[in-house]
Amino acid sequence: MSHIITADSVATSLDALREQVPLVQSLTNIVSANFLTNVLLAAGASNAHIDNVHEAAGFAAIAGGVLVNLGTPDDATAAAFRVAAEAAQKADTPWVLDPVGVGGLPWRSDIAVDLLRFRPTAIRGNASEIIALAGLGGDTRGVDSASDSIDAVPAAISLLNHSDAVSASGPVDYIVGRDSEGVVSGVRVSGGSALLPRVTSTGCSLGGLVAAYLAVTPTALEGLVAAHAHVAVASEIAEKNSTGPGSFAVAYLDALYTVDADTIRTLARVESFELPTGAQN
Amino acid sequence: MSHIITADSVATSLDALREQVPLVQSLTNIVSANFLTNVLLAAGASNAHIDNVHEAAGFAAIAGGVLVNLGTPDDATAAAFRVAAEAAQKADTPWVLDPVGVGGLPWRSDIAVDLLRFRPTAIRGNASEIIALAGLGGDTRGVDSASDSIDAVPAAISLLNHSDAVSASGPVDYIVGRDSEGVVSGVRVSGGSALLPRVTSTGCSLGGLVAAYLAVTPTALEGLVAAHAHVAVASEIAEKNSTGPGSFAVAYLDALYTVDADTIRTLARVESFELPTGAQN
Amino acid sequence: MSHIITADSVATSLDALREQVPLVQSLTNIVSANFLTNVLLAAGASNAHIDNVHEAAGFAAIAGGVLVNLGTPDDATAAAFRVAAEAAQKADTPWVLDPVGVGGLPWRSDIAVDLLRFRPTAIRGNASEIIALAGLGGDTRGVDSASDSIDAVPAAISLLNHSDAVSASGPVDYIVGRDSEGVVSGVRVSGGSALLPRVTSTGCSLGGLVAAYLAVTPTALEGLVAAHAHVAVASEIAEKNSTGPGSFAVAYLDALYTVDADTIRTLARVESFELPTGAQN
């Protein structure tokens, strides 16, 4: 029997995060850099934004986890993405690829595909980005998602050729990956808030949180699920304490901080889902 | 008779924004990138910050509106400004020039003047920037405004040689532009809050909101007025719910989100003003 | 007798800040750019983020104070750091070096050491950065501090060969510098909040506030102490009005704004401390 991921295992991962305070290295876009760091600090991790080509590789070798986010690439940061991903792979530092805008934007799509050769530990995106990255078509409208996240499950499974676990964010998050025995399984995380898409960088900062959880969980699948569930629970709590997107963002940081293992056990909605027939590769 | 812009027409523009959710492409400075995106999401639009030279032109051709903000230019982004503005003009995508710091800083002043050849649909700045850009002298003190916004009206009118509509922000905003029949007219937007200048990027994000409104309004003049009025009303509401600049910024995002057509009709102070004699060019 | 720095002198410095509204030029990292500007505006100063090599020197000559922060350097901004520091020195504009991450990251460590030749008016860092910069060893873990701030006092004193005043931030801040008669003395600022390290850029924005105070105080030592005390008092007030790091950051901006000379006199804990024997160089 393979290990089943539940709200209980998420609670265990959260305790591990709080105890180990993993240090993330972020190579993220200029829109999300501040909020992402605040999300990591609030959740219980730490972050250093190191995205110059001179230091990115050296730091990736010592960081707990690395995030490469394609939100606002330019020639200088694209070069840093490559050396950071390569160094992370060599040093066995878990790293996350967040393929923001891939599909609609050819230049960064090439960068994303090229980065796959360094085998990201996990890939996190919205449905259209995951579909596009898997080469199944799809198209992206800026950083918004045009597709429903369940539609991205086949694409996510096919990306397991390049990564250990893949998530497609949406009103419900669909996550696939190999469990501790190498069996591909699917986990669905429900909850969240309709205000999440009204605050920028909630998705990008989730990518950073994935990098933090990867540093403390036995499998990439568990890390991905834990990050998604932490965010879903915190945003549910935040919505109750807010009157619009401004107060929601503030309450969200507070909730990421105050959520503990008990809150997770009570509120997280984490369920296995049946993979499409023939999907297990 | 030319069409008169009133709080009623602003309310109509707001409804159009909420219905169409225009996608803005921002090429903005690193201070404002996050807040500007949050302002657009809260107000009812969408934003993609795409400012690399490889993708800026392609995206400008499909975006609903483009913002070029000169706040923190460097060689890489300055090149992207040019290709984005050129592509926007070619594709008939409305685009906004926000000439931050122009006047006091010679390097970016040259960039701004060069961008005028791609004929921005609208220009938004503070009084000293508008005066400087028009070549009438003036000087800028960082990004603060040294002049009163009414003093910038003649400069704004002269910039209509390069643009369809021009606004000078201040305690009262003065906006000039051609109406639907090509007649130059002036609109004054009052209101706002004394806390607005205590929060960075409130001006820059207004520039982004102008780009969003231009995507949904029949004339640039109406788009400019609608963005200014939306901001003035939201900041008035926000001031009542705040105890300093931190809580004001939060309440401002909430108010941008909750303001609806009725709020605009009740609170917006939008009036025509007489242009200086001989000003109509 | 040399002049003793107390809560009273900090209150005088705050009044000077509010009256003169100094204009800071920041060359800071992309994580802190927005928050730092909001901190300066809330506190009573002004900020222009000008970090391109074409404009950085010219602006440094006219700014009230300059901040060079090494948080996210790349080749382009590193070149701007040099010309800004050089121009500031030539023009007698006070400038602050914030050596973020120095020690653990060799590339930026070389940049920091090179910048010392332009003699920063003040240096502000956490304990491990100050120790590393002084060449006494130490190591940095991202931007967190691994050492206790009192351990950095000997390193801070040795850096007075390159600067007029040096501070090491921590739960208690230790500040050393020459007073108005050239005598080296030490000042300790207590207070603050345990939530400060849970919000990114609180340290970096303190560096910006130092640059603002340097523009209005007779000695660098007084400027450093005033900035640290303003921050310590505001964060103490903010903690009482917050339920986590999100609401703390908001309340912190509000408190920086509402704190006045009387609040400083009542709440600031500013004390001289005995320098280690033989330390006065």
Q: Report the structural category of chain A.
A: alpha/beta
- Largest chain interface and its two residue counts? A-B, 35 and 32 residues
Order of helices and strands of chain A: HEHEHEHEHEHHEEEHHHHE
SS strand fraction of chain A: 15-25%
Strand order of the largest sheet of chain A: 2-1-3-4-5-6-7-8-9
Shape of chain A: globular
Q: Output the number of helix runs of chain A.
A: 11
| Biggest β-sheet strands, sense, barrel of chain A | 9 strands, mixed
Low-pLDDT residue spans of chain A: 137-144
- If you compute it from the alpha carbons, what radius of gyration of chain A comes out, rounded to the nearest whole angstrom? 17 Å
pLDDT averaged residue by residue of chain A: 93
Oligomer type: homotrimer
Give the distance, in angstroms, between the N- and C-terminal Cα atoms of chain A. Answer: 18 Å
Total strand segments of chain A: 9
Residue share in helix of chain A:
40-55%
Summarize the model shown.
Three copies of one chain form a homotrimer. The first copy, chain A, is built from eleven helices and nine strands. By secondary structure, chain A is α/β, with parallel strands linked by helices.
